[in-house]
Fold each of these.
Amino acid sequence: MTAPAGAGSVGDVRRSLEAARRRAGLSDGELWLAYFGLGGDASPEEMRAYLTEGGPLASGSVDILVQALNEHFMDHGLGMPVPYQER
Amino acid sequence: MGRAVHGVRYRSLTVVGEGSLPDDEALQTSLRTLAETLLGEQGLEELLGNVTSLAAAAIPGCDAASISLMQGGRTTTPVCSAEIAREVDQAQYDTGGGPCLAAMLEEEVFRVDSYADDDRWPEMSAQAVAKGVASSLSLPLSTGRQAVGALNLYSTKPGNFDGAEEQAAMFAAQASVTVSNAQALERAQEMARHLAVALENRDVIGQAKGIIMAAEGATSDEAFAVLRRASQRENRKLHDVAREIVDRRRQGPATP
């Protein structure tokens, strides 16, 4: 299953995730490890391909990535600023 | 008069047993011993301590050898073959200048033939002279991209290290490889620790999702959403929320 095209914003979600990753100062490896620790199943390569060129990623994985990023921001007292795909 | 010795590059000289080694049999044996000693059998300090003692023993006229390491913005001398080397290193850290610091910062070999006549680091030179040190050779230790420290050789005789650069470079190369390996080992161990934590969290989250799926007839993605909403609402890590659910289930009354 691939990420659903929520209001044609699949690319936006992906780009905002990649921007958040950069803002968080997390390497691909660090983000993947956090994602993996939250139960994510995609490989590091699949995650990278999704973030850079919109490669396929299981729909649930996007919110796991969001959670991984938000937990990083939470650690730095910045709340949970990245929006979830599923409301 | 001392001067920086340019163009001495020894990163390619890390292979022991090549034809580039000096004939000196003792030196060859020393280097082979160092190369064959694996990190893990001995700690980093012990291994570097071997480098300094073997360098001091193998290089003619060298009275003391030490290794300086830059770690977390501080430079220290973790090992030396004789305390005088640590003292002269310290004089450099205290005065903020000297061949060992210059070797690290400029990634060049710095030789001082006579501290009494050298005017590059007057404060430090005066202290070296007062301690009876006449000449020195400082070689940068590099782990590929950046200099991480220096191998420092000291002698009570002036001009002792003229022509000793190549020999000394063998030991600097060995120390560089040792530091590099130690850093790689440290990174690998840290990665292993992080992975162990991730696996544990993943397991707890999987269990909590299973509990939610069973209780609410939810899909795996829906169960995750329940957890992450609780995480958001309570401003807690998702694995903490999951742990609570699993613990509560474990403590709760057994269903018949």
Amino acid sequence: MKTFRLSKNWLYLPLIAMAIFYLIPMYVMLVTGFKSFAEVDLQTMWNLPKGIHFDNYIEAYKHLAPSLRNSFVMVIPSAIISSLLGSLNGFILAKWKFRGADIIFPFILFGMFIPYQSILIPLVQFMRSVGLTGLLGLAIAHIIYGIPITTLTFRNYYASLPQELLEAAKMDGADMLGIYRYILLPISIPSFVVVLIWQFTSAWNDFLFAVVLTGNQDWPITVALNNMAGSQIIQWNVQMAGSLLAALPTLLVYIFLGRYFLRGLLAGSLKG
Amino acid sequence: MFKDKDRYLSVILITPSILAVLIFIYAFIGWSVRVSLSKWKGLTPDYTFVGLKNYLSLFSDPRFHVDIRNTLIFTGVFVLGSIVLGFLMAVMLDQGLKGEGFFRSLFLFPMAISYIVTGVVWRWLMNPATGSRISGLNLLFSYLHLDFLINKWHTTPTWGMAAIALAAIWQMSGYTMALYLAGLRAIPHELREAAQIDGANEIQIYRHIILPLLAPVTLSALIILGHMSLKVFDLIVAVAGKQLPLDVPAIYMWQTTFDGLFYGRGAAIGILLLVSVAVLIIPYIVYTQKTEVQQ
């Protein structure tokens, strides 16, 4: 068996080649970010910096600070609320089936996949007519369009729990809310982490809703970064530093909670 | 067995979510259909019915033809690239090598980043300048004496979309890897061992046992990636802005609606996108829900 394993060491060659492919954009982003303004030159973009400078990050932060704050303000509550809604819906659809629950579920699921271009005009018209533009409107859009995936994740998790768990609680006289509050909620913390991360990441990274629902006062980071990249005045090195700032929150979440992130990904493909 | 009070409560608690989905998804789709059948052009809504005029004019619109061609190129390169790369990475990582977790995390991290960030960085990597102003990946190729690889990336006529697809592969191939890896882990070891005892070699095992067992994973990957490529928008905007040679339906929809105020036409594009996604996704949802019931 041992020689069998040894013969597979050549696999490190393609694996390292792939690793380089994935790291190249990170390398350029980091290396450029740490160069001084004087050193920055497109023709030497692959060279390592001569020292550690923060000029690019400071400059990028000056441009992006308000929109970073906007993103946090909008993303955190919408991730929390859509996770709570998903958990409640998942519980009801999995364990408290009312007539028609199994018919409703696929209709909710379809909402996860629709191209938002097909609802964009009504969304903008509706939000404007009820005065829900800006960050609040954007947060509400993320909560509502997050319902399908959060419901799916929790429903799959709750469906996997043995029915006896609930029966026992019912015998003891617990009602529906009691079962949810004291039995299901405490054991669904890992699912909450999965869903919270997923919602945080997708709302943070969203561009389409943000660009139609917010104005330059309340642009979240993706819109601000894209506009920065499209501007002729702001240098590419500052754009690179700005990209890292925009990516950092979700990257940190990924680095520390990657396992949960992966589970969210698999849930999104309906594979549970 | 259930108390009536609990039954009512469960319906009451789920009603807001169902209403929200009903309104923001289904009623809005209906509303879009109505706009797409109207002659609304300009800032004030005009729902005068014009039948399929907006759709018919799209079918004879050269820009929409470019969009379809670009979407096909993007879909082909992106889906095929992500599936092949994802499968190979998953197989390599399934061999029990040391450092598997490290490589897996590395291949997957672009998934955590937005298309906008990816696009901004790749736009500088895919700098098409030549001669003394050469930079980005072209410069790297020239350092490595791989000059034959130097190309104009997304500014290449007709095939520029393939360069955008490359950035999308960078972002999404880790996802396909994760799908395949989960599929590989679900295959019982006894199956491989039995085949080994029967004298099958490694390649035969993959060809005749593992690949067929992974067919449902490949189907999921095809559908998920395929429907993503129909919707591609952010990535192209961030790499190239809104240039006609790299136009896709989502960008056309956005420009014609919000810049040009051709609401009727924009809604028609949105509905066409929805129909093409639905053709892929509805059978998939039906299929996954059925297999779930069987389990």
